[in-house]
Amino acid sequence: MNFASDNTTGAAEEILAAIAAANQGAAMPYGNDGLTRKVEKKIAEVFEAEAAVFLLATGTASNALALSVMTPPFGAVYCQAEAHMNVDECGAPEFYTGGAKLLPLEGADGKITVADLENALSRTNNGVHAVQPAAITLTQATEAGTVYTVDEVKAVTAVARKAGLGVHMDGARFANAVQSLGCAPADITWRAGVDVLSFGATKNGALAAEAVVIFEPALAKDFAFRRKRGGHLFSKMRFIAAQWDAYLHDGRWLHWAGHANAMAVRLATGLMKVPGARFSYPVEANELFVVLPGPVIDGLKKDGFEFYLWTASQGETLIRLITAFNTRSADVDAFLKAALNHAEAYDGGHDGGHDGGEAQA
Amino acid sequence: MNFASDNTTGAAEEILAAIAAANQGAAMPYGNDGLTRKVEKKIAEVFEAEAAVFLLATGTASNALALSVMTPPFGAVYCQAEAHMNVDECGAPEFYTGGAKLLPLEGADGKITVADLENALSRTNNGVHAVQPAAITLTQATEAGTVYTVDEVKAVTAVARKAGLGVHMDGARFANAVQSLGCAPADITWRAGVDVLSFGATKNGALAAEAVVIFEPALAKDFAFRRKRGGHLFSKMRFIAAQWDAYLHDGRWLHWAGHANAMAVRLATGLMKVPGARFSYPVEANELFVVLPGPVIDGLKKDGFEFYLWTASQGETLIRLITAFNTRSADVDAFLKAALNHAEAYDGGHDGGHDGGEAQA
Amino acid sequence: MNFASDNTTGAAEEILAAIAAANQGAAMPYGNDGLTRKVEKKIAEVFEAEAAVFLLATGTASNALALSVMTPPFGAVYCQAEAHMNVDECGAPEFYTGGAKLLPLEGADGKITVADLENALSRTNNGVHAVQPAAITLTQATEAGTVYTVDEVKAVTAVARKAGLGVHMDGARFANAVQSLGCAPADITWRAGVDVLSFGATKNGALAAEAVVIFEPALAKDFAFRRKRGGHLFSKMRFIAAQWDAYLHDGRWLHWAGHANAMAVRLATGLMKVPGARFSYPVEANELFVVLPGPVIDGLKKDGFEFYLWTASQGETLIRLITAFNTRSADVDAFLKAALNHAEAYDGGHDGGHDGGEAQA
Amino acid sequence: MNFASDNTTGAAEEILAAIAAANQGAAMPYGNDGLTRKVEKKIAEVFEAEAAVFLLATGTASNALALSVMTPPFGAVYCQAEAHMNVDECGAPEFYTGGAKLLPLEGADGKITVADLENALSRTNNGVHAVQPAAITLTQATEAGTVYTVDEVKAVTAVARKAGLGVHMDGARFANAVQSLGCAPADITWRAGVDVLSFGATKNGALAAEAVVIFEPALAKDFAFRRKRGGHLFSKMRFIAAQWDAYLHDGRWLHWAGHANAMAVRLATGLMKVPGARFSYPVEANELFVVLPGPVIDGLKKDGFEFYLWTASQGETLIRLITAFNTRSADVDAFLKAALNHAEAYDGGHDGGHDGGEAQA
Hints:
4 copies of one chain form a homotetramer. By secondary structure, chain A is an alpha/beta fold. The first copy, chain A, contains 14 helices and 11 strands. Chain A is 39% helix and 16% strand. The two termini of chain A are 22 Å apart.
């Protein structure tokens, strides 16, 4: 029973079936096959836009390549301090942009705020001596498991636009965000001021399928060359396209994300009943960050549940739980039952009542 | 009936079956799963060596990353002028090495010669002003469809070693070369002086599976970071590992390459009977380069056979034919029959006898 | 009367005379002349070390090239948040290192603290996903006009050493620091754990003369190639060497720095008498950061004194004053007299007594 | 008596005097001083154009930065095979462009020909797999000591323009070329299709002074950031500006180049009388490449004359002689007298008459 990451899951059966089905006869390589063309169009249609679409296979490549067309090497890209690009990609953005600088903003609940961005921009009057503000990247859903509302995205992109910045959205968990918001994909992207989206499918049931969706045509010009140069143009591209074809078929992508989100709610609701549990952030997608008493965490680990530990600022221990398209409700219930048992054994009376914190279940 | 490239083929059924079989339960991401560990070991065993093995998904990434650990940014890498890295990767080697310089050598039959390399090295006494010789890369089988013998590799690597150069082998069609030579994989790699091999499976039946095999331990130190930074560390790595597991199982990789090579011989043998046909290079693996009379080429194209045209130096037209693990002998025979028919229609007596050139069938 | 920067000063007469004297006959280019060789040796002798010395002409080049031999492209370099390299070099360190990441530490009084560094290092257990700690850079004298003591440097470098980090010192104002400390140059560099020093002369009377001094031989291997590749190998190198020759002659460099420091003390001592003046940092070299009442600042500007304004955290206005090798005491006195006059006019009784803050005069 | 390079000369007295004269009072740093502004304008006036001008101090920086605004990282830049940028700058162009690829063209007499360029461009139909043709660079005067005529430049740039390439001119010896042609600087640059010029002064009497002159406004946008980022923005810029001010004053730059060219003619005329001498290229600027009998070369070396040896294609030995703004005619005559003496001693009758080859004196 693994709540460590949506990367530990395998792929959905429908995805594997589509790969097998695509394995018929010869097809032009490097994305010049019919299925790739069809899927590129299909993705643009999901966004009701004339977007340029580029298929990829890893989120790191998708994000780093997206930034590479949005900033010169001497540019600055604002990001939330804990953004995957800033802390978890071994410098991929710096590599692909030729050395641009990520400038971290603290934000709140994993989101960049208007105040943060305005404050940072106000300090950039250093002429040729400083890196030049070029772009901003928002993670949706965020690393904290929260989701920017349409209005929040609009407010931040308005500031960015005024300052001449391009707007990137890291959508490794975009499906979870859209499902959570219940809006059209266009509403939270280009209609809200986003220029380029890294649209992930891998964490939500695909084997290895990502796409960069470029809404601003001028930014699409160089992408194909940079993708090739980065070693990310697949010769047998039809097998990535096939995954997308299956993923988008009949709303599966939102259905799968909906299941993951529902499992997160089920976890959150149950954890609120565990004495001493406190949520660090609202639970709005498929990630939960929850402070638990040490003995409860130890017990869960001993039971074989897998999840990551975080260090909370006050020295408490935080755990991160992630649900996925294929998380079983029985596993969630087993986890909750075990947590309650450990809490009782540890003496629930320790500090009295439960504390559901900010979780919105 | 497609002879355009071994990239136009799909994947072998055994490969897809292995992917499906790997899709059981949760697995640690980013290559920390058991299957990846097992396959890394298995690949090293194929080479009877304590090699460091890194799984990848594209040949471009494999080659460019391999070079990135073999040259400083101010280094020079000698390659055959038509090497894929020099002309077909949109500058990926320059990107990954931070701007190292590929220095092309003409060679013969697609191979770098000792004389070429010695001559080039003799002109490098320019101190700090010139890029510094750092490595050499050999393509095995070559872009010309030829195969370096063990002695040829040893002769070139001896010169390289003396000059302090690292030796890389681009093995996008390594299986075809090994099957053609009938030697042990170790004999044509580390025992012959190769430090790093890009070991390809994609062109020979895999969906997307490559590996960098590092025989010189000191060169392995940084590889994992560079792979991650390039966006080439797959989260669901088990699906690349599964392909390798199936590929190496019970000698399948050599069996598949053997089939491709045999189909190339069948093509070559038949084409020798076509009046006006002349081979540009010996046929030693699964690629054929053959000059044909224009009307024959036109006729074949009109029949729907797919292949690429090359411009020969004398203004003649050359066609490239590639066979693969799944090329059917019936398709080969249909191609040969059509070629003979078109040649007869065009008047076989045009310039008399056939000319099988250098082809060794 | 210009207190804006030590960059606004010209060059010392002795420096220009040395350049003219070096202009005799032909000399081998690119640093292969006798004067350059002599000066490289002379600089090593200043540090009582077998150091490798490379002459340069700008501080940006000196710093960025120094880092480029201390970190791989996937490395992290710890710096104080306000370090010139982090905020004032338009991404030069990222450019020269191939995209390494500067990780800012807050520190105190412009200095990195042991606690800061230890805390940052304790958060680096992210395997291949994070940039890899590679180096630390200390600015001496700091951007705040303070000076690390020998013990402070030793304490920080001990932590760095234990974590396997290289240690760089940005010595754009190294002369001012050494003069302030009264120690041997070796004591505050290699004997205190510094591997590479960017030794500046430009701000202290040279026309354009910098040197990278490498105490750790392994780090010197690639430097000459990187300098050339960056366009920083001067053909008529003797003219940079001549500046160094004059600069180091008979202790001039410390004499000049001593004058600049003395002028800073004279300014600080005088400013303590200005009602409302408050120093942001101890004055330990040739830079002063002092909060002054708005009307005083306005008055000084109107009088034609040149200096930069800073925004203090509490919304107050801070001014930065820099003294140089050729600052005249009469100019300092004129500045002080004007400041006092403006303060009196503005009503010295506004908030009573003077407040000399932390300034150590 | 040094004919090794125009880099071995010192600086003209007028240049040093201008530096001394600029050393008055404080001046805004980083090129924000009046003298720099004046000189930028003055250089534009030399070209009768609204050019953007950027001062620099080395030719390597000038060339590499110029290319960096003319090609994307995945671009190709055509150059003559022996161009300094291709063989003598340790990969600086690759570094500054982020890994663009220099594609060498053979040309004739050191010049790129229309046929060469057209042939190369005709082979670039490889889609996303190849680097993308972006620019061409011409060296004027060439590495062979020849000079492109206005018509030759126009013919090549017309082909470049049609293919969408930017045109760069490496003018390390631009003064020698202009003086040789007797045309207006504008005629051989923007009026002939050049977009960006690297305008050198260092080899012709300056201490360290170069300028990039951008005629195409769109290319100027990023230059200042790239210059800073490369570490090439000098804080005490006035001292580079001062050199330019003196260099351009009253036609000095052409006067000095004229002297160097005249000394080259004097050398060429004299060498034609040396039995066995044969010129490899026409002598059109200040460089001579001449085949001499081995004993003559040995004798000259023994006499203490300094020059570089080249290997001619036929195994003969070639010497390169370079004259400069300050070459004395007495030194030229001494060289010629010695050469004649050695030739006579060696037995002038060896192979009969003299052979002045292609030299146009």
